């Protein structure tokens, strides 16, 4: 977890908000002591349910997992 001073946070706020948007957590310090943590919002139960419903059925099961995924004649290297 990254530690940042209040002054640095003020100067580069958009930079740190972009990092937080990607899932990173940030600790804000004042005089060397942590005074706050900034983190992305937690997902709600409805968002989790919606994501699971979008993913349902998208995972494929292969009978021969070591077999090639495509036919060798379709490989660019053989053209």
Kindly describe this structure:
A hairpin with a 2-residue loop joins β2 and β3. The protein has a domain of 55 residues: 3-Layer(aba) Sandwich (YefM-like fold). The protein has a three-stranded mixed sheet. It is elongated, with a radius of gyration of 23 Å. The protein contains three helices and three strands, in the order βααββα. The longest helix is centred in the middle third of the chain and has 11 residues. By secondary structure, the protein is α+β, with helices and mostly antiparallel strands. The mean pLDDT is 88.
Describe how the helices and strands are arranged:
Elements: E1 2-5, H1 6-11, H2 13-21, E2 26-30, E3 33-38, H3 45-55
Parallel strand pairs: 1-2
Antiparallel strand pairs: 2-3
Please give a handful of descriptors for the protein shown.
79 residues, YefM-like fold, 3 helices
In short:
The protein is an alpha+beta fold and 79 residues long. The protein contains 3 helices and 3 strands, in the order βααββα. The longest helix is centred in the middle third of the chain and has 11 residues.
């Amino acid at each position: 977890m990254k530690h940042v001073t209040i002054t640095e946070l003020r100067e580069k706020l958009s930079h740190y908000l972009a990092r937080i948007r990607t899932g990173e957590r940030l600790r804000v310090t004042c005089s060397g002591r942590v005074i706050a943590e900034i983190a992305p919002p937690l997902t709600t139960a409805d968002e989790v349910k919606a994501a699971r419903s979008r993913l349902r059925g998208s995972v494929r099961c292969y009978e021969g997992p070591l077999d090639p995924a495509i036919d060798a004649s379709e490989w660019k290297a053989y053209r």
